[in-house]
Design brief:
Blueprint lengths: L1 E3 L14 E4 L2 E4 L16 H19 L6 E8 L5 H12 L5 E6 L9 E8 L2
Parallel strand pairs: 4-5
Antiparallel strand pairs: 1-2, 2-3, 3-6, 4-6
InterPro entries: RidA (IPR006056), RidA_CS (IPR019897), RutC-like_sf (IPR035959), YjgF/YER057c/UK114 (IPR006175)
GO molecular function, one term: deaminase activity
Family: Belongs to the RutC family.
């Protein structure tokens, strides 16, 4: 197992890696709307999901994969009323690529985030 890290995404806020590779797979840690400098995007769910996806892009790049290599995504929302707004941004992010996905409502997320997303990617 190899740890993956980049300064183009926020540093882990706990004892974990931004991502790890294990065999042909890359597992990202869940990303919340923190900028690479660690400041929180305290805006709409639309603004938050854009930052989360930018963080995930940076981590995927550091791992040597792209969003087209993502095979599974998990989305955590504090309010499923935001599902359609997050779904719009998610769909635009992936375009025609359709990885498997789960979306779960949770009671709370770190730093008061409205959304957290994690990916599993397969190296080509």
């Amino acid at each position: 197992m190899d740890e993956i890290s980049t300064q183009q995404a926020p540093a882990a806020i706990g004892p974990y890696a931004q991502a790890v590779s294990a065999g042909p797979y890359v597992f990202t840690s869940g990303q919340i709307p923190l900028r690479p400098d660690g400041t929180f995007v305290d805006g709409s769910v639309d603004e938050q999901v854009q930052q989360v996806l930018a963080n995930l892009d940076a981590i995927l790049t550091a791992a040597g994969v792209t969003r087209k290599d993502v095979v599974k995504a998990t989305i955590y929302l504090t309010d499923l009323a935001n599902f359609e707004r997050v779904n719009q941004a998610y769909g635009a992010y992936f375009g025609d690529h359709r990885p498997a996905r789960s979306t779960v409502q949770v009671a709370a997320l770190p730093r008061g985030a409205a959304v957290e997303i994690e990916f599993i990617a397969l190296r080509p």
